[in-house]
Amino acid sequence: TGLTSDLEDGVAILNNLQKELREREDTFRAARVEDIIQYRQLGHKMPRLFVIVDEIQELFEQDEKLGQKAIDILRELFKRGRAFGINILWASQNVPSAPGLKDKVLSQIGNRISLRLNEPDDAIDIKIDPKVVRNLNRPEKGLGVINDMRYGNDSIEFRVAYAENSNNRVAFSQMVIDKWAKVTAASKQEPLFIVG
After folding, report:
1. DSSP code per residue over 95-145
2. Residue 27's pLDDT band (cuts 50, 70, 90)
3. Residue 19's closest CA among 83, 65, 71, 84?
4. pTM to 2 decimals?
């Protein structure tokens, strides 16, 4: 796991992910496979990478040149990364208005999720029906809308577990930690934390 809040570090991490994608591409070509599933079926081990980019708009709003570099890298990662075991979760309070972002990057994102929005019409930017998002403005907690672009344009409401108080949050956090321990025990692989 990597963690940074610095713009240049963020773009450097994206550069490293792009380099990793290209190294995996070379590895798969040498093994004569097309994706990580086929590679693993040959008995090779390779971890999937799950990258969380929170407040992604920070990459685009401060420095236009770095922002465009980030857009170009993200486009390749979203378009080709899944086959190479690189998956990205993009989280943001809004959809940045950087030139080329919607055409180059958003068009490559298959699953789009929206939680409650102050302005439901903002959901249009991520191709989610704003009428469905308006329905989220109810007292219940943990409501969201998902639109999986691969299977049509239906915006479907869902509900997740919601930890109302800090005691529940601690219990849920411990459940996640315990689950991680079970999953990683088999692979003997420890998570790596980078704080920048």
Report:
1. ----TTHHHHTGGG--EEEE---SSGGGGGGGT--HHHHHTT-SS-SSEEE
2. very high
3. 84
4. 0.69
